[in-house]
Every structure is written in C-alpha cells, then in structure tokens.
Amino acid sequence: MSYKGIDISEHNGNVNWEAIKNSGIEFAMLRASWGHFTEDAKVRRNVSECKRVGMPFGLYHYSYADNDANAKVEATKFLALAHELGGYTYPLNLDMEDADGWKARNGVGDSQNLRTIRIFKDTIEGAGDYLTLYMSKSWFDRLRAKNAGLIDSIDAWLAHWGISAPSMDCGMWQYTSDGVVSGSSARTDMNIAYKDYPGILASMGHKVDTKPTPAPAPKPEPAPTPSTGGVKAGDKVKVKNSATNYVTGETIPDWVKDRAYTVMQVGNGKVLLKEIMSWVRTADLVGQADAGSGLFVGKVVKVKNTAESYATGETIPDWVKNQSYTIYQIGSGKVLLKEIMSWVRTADIA
After folding, report:
1. Beta bridge partners of 331
2. Distance (Å, rounded) from C-alpha 182 to C-alpha 300?
3. pLDDT tens figures, 304-339
4. Domains of the chain and any CATH numbers
C-alpha cells in the first residue's frame, strides 16, 4: 500500500485545500510549531481546512533544542498544541535537521540531538501518541551509528531526494521539495506513506473528532461568596480571561490574564497577588479550589520524585518529575496536567 501526500507550513501561504484534495493528494503533514516555542502562523487555518474538506493530516515540530530543558519545553508544548488542535489521523513528528545551519553555528552536537530525540519519544509516546522522526539519510546513518536502539525504535520519515525509491526502511518518504500541486505554492514537498496510519492510530485507541475544535466551555462555578475558596498564601493561581476589574476598581489589562501568580495574602473573597501586588477577587481566579484536596483548575503543581506511573499506567520519565505544571482538569483521584497533557494521580503531586 502507498498513499500520496504533501507537507505544508506557513511558507506555502494560504493554500487551497479543496484543490489539493481534488488533485489526488491523500494526506498532509502540517508544521505545527518550531523552536522553543513558536506556533506556525498557518497551522490553525490548515488544520481547520483539512477537517473541513476531509483531508487526513498529521503534525510536525521543527526542533531547535540546544539543551535538555529546551527539548522538554518543545516536546511538551508541541504535544499540548497537537491535543488542542485535535483531529489528526497521521503521526506527530519530530523534524530533526539543520536546514539553516543554526545547530552547527551554535555547537549543538549529536549527543544533544540524541537526547532531544529521546525526550520527544518519552513525551509523545508516553502520552499514548504515535511518533515519527524526520531526518535526511545522512542524519539517520550518523545518529544510528551512535545509538541504533533509539533511532530504530521510532518510525522513520525519510527525506531523500533525487532517487527512485527509499534508501532505507521508512514509514514515509519525502522524495522531493520541488513538487507541483494544484492549490499549493510553486514548490511543495512531496511524500509517500507506506503505512495505513489512520488504521494504526485507530488501533491504538486514538479517537478523532474531525469537526473544528471549539473553545472549552467554562465549567459551572458556584456563585461568588465571601470566602477564599480554599486558596491559601503560597498557592499559584491564574487570573481568568473574563476578569474585568481589580477589587480596587481599576481595569485588569489583558496581559495580566491567564498567567501564573503567587498568592501573597488572603482576604475576604479576595487575594493579593505577589508579582503584580494587586487584589483580585477569588471569583476571578481560574477554577475554584476543591474543599477536600485544595486543588483547582489553573493551580500550578509539581510531580513528586516518588511518582512511578501516570494514572493511565505508563511510566513517568524522570525529567517530568519535580517540574511545575498547570492543572487543566480534575478527575477522581487524578488531575490532567496541561503542559504534558497527561493524567497524574493526586497522590503523586505536590
């Protein structure tokens, strides 16, 4: 089996997805993001249009990771963005190359490249998603010679132009950057997929909603009462996007909203936020504390060093531990952490 596809980024402009589909293209790999961390300027339009016309798609991230910390930022934010966009039936992909020479100029060597690949593998596969690795033949050969176990454990998306067939085993092959496709720019990357990725992802339990992803509906909240809602000094909280005024009456500017702050002091139905030294109503904080656990949506927590596995059963890698994450959703005895989009038991967070 084989499927004809393209890969697209903001550099292709506003492409015509109906024309692309009608030309016989069967799938697309869309750049979601690059670096640590910038969202592709066209990815939301491309995802929405692919869903509208019924074009199967996957997402990729172009890495500029020069240390482990930046690799973790890239991997977790890419995963969170992919889950927010939704609808993909092709893999999530790590693009490891040095097309602009940045890595070479900044001394990013293969030991770091291999650690970056490992971090992406742990993050993406740890969340139950399917990861592929995009590299040129020379990069595959060079990194495989240094860690064949790691490289061969990830499905390859091979970039090798000017040949008549893939030069190594791969799930996808990018065979030219000079393709011409109706609806796209003059130069378009062309690919062939040799696997039924929608079938593979479906067998993994990957559920697809091809409808445009609506903004999350706000959770019902109790009417504001003169209480702290369980918030205490030292807690990390966020200001709701819907907040309009400080307790003192001044308008809350947009840049203050949806950012984490430290509760410095608690008053009657209000809290003093340390970083901006302003009083905000507890009703204007993201989420409300759970009376029993003190947890609430928007609270910043850490995964304990003693944590062993996610609530879904996968092993929690060491780099996830003792890092700060934002509670995105609260379940029974577990919380969903936004930055890694993974469920962690409440007993394993601090």
Report:
1. 334
2. 47
3. 999 998 887 778 888 889 888 888 777 778 888 877
4. 3-203 (3.20.20.80), 236-348 (no CATH)
